[in-house]
Specification:
By secondary structure, the protein is α/β, with parallel strands linked by helices. The chain is about 45% helix and about 5% strand. The chain has 13 helices and 5 strands. Strands 2-1-3-4-5 form a 5-stranded parallel β-sheet, with helices on both faces. β4, α11 and β5 form a beta-alpha-beta unit. α5 packs parallel to α10. The radius of gyration is 21 Å and the shape is globular. The N and C termini lie far apart (about 55 Å).
């Protein structure tokens, strides 16, 4: 009798957990302002050891780097794991998460995260945390990235998403993954104004951001991954120029390349009146030029295989 009761309890628990997990999948936080998914969810759909080159950063990065173009030009296996508002802590944890399943050769990190701290927009905090798998890295990320006193809501996740029954749509029941490998931009042209770099004095940015920058470098060293820092072109305010100048000095101590695409914009053929959606983000025309420059740099400086014709791809 005890064995039968134990078996019933185990079956009940298994069914309960299965149903709870399925209900969570439906109610889970989704990027309803964008493609109803995040680059993390798309990343989790990939097979192991499919990505050689990883791009990390905020919307500046996902509007500027086109993995499909790198594939067409070089057969390069890349993924753009940028998420709106991603700070350097978010980039670190995305890097760490990617290493679990991918044998990364090169990681390219946008320096825009040096110019701000944390998540002033709540939706950006959700984008950069809740779309992760529930692993020890998730809890580590929450401890580091969530500065409010409601960390327990992020641990459990249900307190944040339980009211989503009011906004459920077809997409919540049917998985629809965009095939752009993290890239998201458009063809709108509002333009930007190139901010000429003044002779600025390097100015220390936030101490926390400096620590995360160093942690990214340490993680690359530990994982034997090549690291490239870049700054996607945008209309850079004076104070941010000072921060980037300081970041370049920090990075120079480690002999890591930095591609400042504001300084390089003329060589890249960037048209500031045509190649931007707004002051901070390239449109598809600008992204093609950024990707072309990055592709040539990566091809020349790193041993990256051409996978065109490989059945796995």
């Amino acid at each position: 009798m005890k064995i039968k009761n134990t078996a019933k309890i185990l079956v009940f628990c298994a069914l309960f957990l299965f149903l709870l997990n399925r209900i969570y999948d439906i109610f889970s936080w989704k990027d309803t302002a964008g493609n109803y998914t995040s680059s993390m969810e798309v990343f989790y759909d990939l097979e192991d050891n499919m990505v050689d080159v990883l791009f990390l950063g905020s919307s500046h990065c996902y509007c500027s780097v086109i993995p499909a173009q790198l594939w067409e030009d070089y057969g390069m296996a890349s993924f753009n794991m940028a998420i709106s508002g991603q700070d350097l802590a978010g980039s670190y944890y995305n890097f760490k998460e990617a290493l679990k399943t991918q044998d990364l050769k090169v990681v390219c990190v946008d320096l825009y995260g040096c110019a701000f701290h944390g998540y002033l927009i709540e939706g950006n905090l959700y984008r950069n945390t809740l779309s992760r798998k529930l692993t020890p890295t998730y809890f580590e990320a929450v401890n580091s990235m969530v500065e409010t006193d409601n960390k327990s809501d992020f641990y459990l996740r249900w307190p944040i998403i339980h009211t989503r029954y009011k906004e459920l749509k077809k997409q919540d029941f049917v998985e629809e993954r965009p095939a752009y490998l993290g890239y998201a931009s458009g063809f709108i042209t509002n333009g930007a104004v190139k901010q000429e770099y003044a002779c600025v004095e390097p100015k220390p940015f936030g101490e926390a951001e400096q620590e995360w920058l160093l942690k990214i470098i340490e993680l690359a060293q530990e994982s034997d991954t090549e690291l490239v820092f870049f700054l996607a072109p945008y209309q850079v305010p004076l104070e941010a120029q000072e921060y980037y100048a300081y970041a370049k000095e920090m990075i120079a101590e480690y002999d890591i390349p930095v591609l400042d695409m504001v300084e390089l914009s003329e060589a890249m053929g960037i048209n500031w009146g045509r190649d931007f959606i707004d002051y901070g983000h390239t449109n598809h025309f600008g992204a093609q030029k950024v990707t072309d420059y990055l592709g040539k740099f990566l091809k020349v400086n790193y041993d990256l295989p051409d996978y065109r014709g490989d059945e796995r791809y």
